[in-house]
Amino acid sequence: MSGLPLQGMVATAASIASFASCEAQVVSGLTAFADVTVLPMSSETVLPGRTVVVRDGAIAAVGPAGEVEVPRGATVIDGTGRFLMPGLAEMHAHVPPGADPPREAVEDILFLYVANGVTTIRGMLGSDYQIPLAGEIERGELLGPSFYVGAPSINGRSAPTPADAERLLHAHARAGYHLQKIHPGVSLETWDHMVEVANRVGLSYAGHVPAEVGLVHAIETGISTVEHLDGYVQAIASDDVQAQVGAGRISLGGLARGVDEAGLAEIVRLTIDHDVYVVPTMYLWENLYRATDPDEMLRQPEMRYVSAATREGWRRRAGAGLGAAEEVELYLALRRRILKALSDAGAGILMGTDSPQLFNVPGFALHRELRAMAGAGMSNYEILKSGTVAVGEYVASHLGLDGNFGTVAPGMRADLVLLGSNPLDELANLFDRVGVMVRGRWIGRAEIDAGLEALAAKHAG
Q1: What's the pTM value of the predicted model, to 2 decimals?
Q2: What is the pLDDT of residue 20?
Q3: CB atoms within 10 A of CB 394
């Protein structure tokens, strides 16, 4: 769609004459958002009356509308009364597993992310096919968010010994994975050897915190991101509660009541000192721990976009909760308190949902996650930052890759979302999408709606 006038988009008065005169000479890969309000996300700033020029997949210029010239041949998108911000990131995503899943299923999931303004994903359970898939996306051969691919996990079964972990790390580094996923069950001996080898081959490692390793040791030995706030509740429990946890004699509520306040401050400090990022997945944990009515969950409007088999699988997995309702709510409230403490102290928070896990439709679940993060007391800016500028910083500092995205500034990757209202005022305004730009390719609302309707029709019934 890049380079074509978009239905329903009107060029600004200042540029319409020149645009009309060169309409037949539209330059591919050249787009200008005219008279738009920019949310750069590098700070909590709103910049009205800007022109943003995109050329060949990158932002070429950002400035006051009267100072930045709209290039001849540019596709001009009217930004009057609209808000332009960086695309969002889903940092605990899943695409279909296996060696060779149906291509259509893969493309459907990628489209769901893009349709929701998600222009970057980090896949957290890799398969070999995903590495060339990420290359297709990067080259513009396939519509989808930029894809950072986690390797198949190191866990208690895949790596029961240090030698197994070393073998897997070397294989995953050779294959070109961007990071190493960790699942539970890894012994302390295997973990320490894994850390040594991972540093040698240049793979960061992220995921769950194995029980034998513990959160403190995982942080001190360089875990890159901790998913689901894994280990944080246990790490801040008092010594007496820790003993009860080890013996399996404590409820969720007892665990939540046994907080060591000094321990909370210490684990937050340790997280920041070691530059560890956290992907909290708050919405998923609410669904996992609370009793859920599957019929009510499946009435959510986004359920139309996934298959009947997926919906039925989620229905079967819905449970009666992991304890008495009061105990569960105490535990979830503590998770919210930990997230707020990390955010207030300046720890790195990354947006993620673990889609398509239980009732989490790719892309749509991210918006439910935002509300859960707000429920923890994070500000709208801090929440949006966790899916934009913080992600670029993580990619550069932990993956050693180009982090030139996540802000609206010259030289940044042109991953953008155009909105009809300001998400800093209300996070729900992220649904007020005029269109999404992925690596300079513009996908307007009409194209997004048509794609979603096609998915709904395919999965009807």
Answers
A1: 0.91
A2: 38
A3: 27
